[in-house]
Each structure stands twice: as C-alpha cells, then as structure tokens.
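User: structure tokens for this one?
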Amino acid sequence: MRAPTDDLHVFVYGSLMPGGSYWARYCAGKVTAQQRARVHGRIFCGHDGYLALTTAIDDLRWVPGWVLTLRDESVLRDFDQLEDFDAGRAPEQNDYQRVRVNYFADDDSPAPTALGEAWAYVTTETQLARAGAMEIFAVPPT
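Assistant:
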C-alpha cells in the first residue's frame, strides 16, 4: 500500500522540470522536494513541439528527468489541467494519460537503484500517430 505522500510524487521530463518554461507558473513554491531520476521509456516530439513520454515495463531504455514532491493535491490537479488529462474522460480524449511509473536513481550504474513510484504523464501509440510524433530521445541500456 502506498503512503499518502506517494500520490504527490510526479516524474517530469520537459517543461515542468526545474528551469523549464512552466516551472515558475506551476512549480515554484508548490514543490517541497525535487530529485533527479529516470524511468524506462522513450521521448517523442509531435508537430506541435510538445514532448511525449511512452513507458513499458520491458523497455530497457531510459528517460532522464526529475521527481517532484508536490505540496498538495491541488498542484496535481493543476498539472492535470496543463497536460489536458481528465480521469473522467475516455483515454483517447485526453492529450496525456496519468499513470504510475517506477523511478530510479539517475546515475551511471548499469543496475540503478529503484527509488519508488511516481505519477507520470504518458501518451499512447494512437496519440503519437495522430500527432505525427517522432522519437527524439532515449538513453540506450547499459
């Protein structure tokens, strides 16, 4: 069973990262902790310039980013709005899906330490095709 604070951990890989274009508006003063981390997956970029993460438990590639600990659930709701995610809508109506992912230490170790679970905003193959997305980044397995 997850501790209540686990629900306030979010893995970010783009504009919500420290120094990213949305940091000041959505994160400054609303994040109680931040740490470098990585997850299994790949990053794509659509014609609109937005990044999209795909994850699969059997994907051995890595995506670096940050795990943010949010001050409270209202910040998570703000993230949902930014990422156009609504749990009450059909998945294909959302721009991103919010899912739980395992995150790991962002170090050079071939077997990085698992640090916990966090929310992440990911996309589906259908959404990638609709956006004309191309893979732009993943760190190959070591």
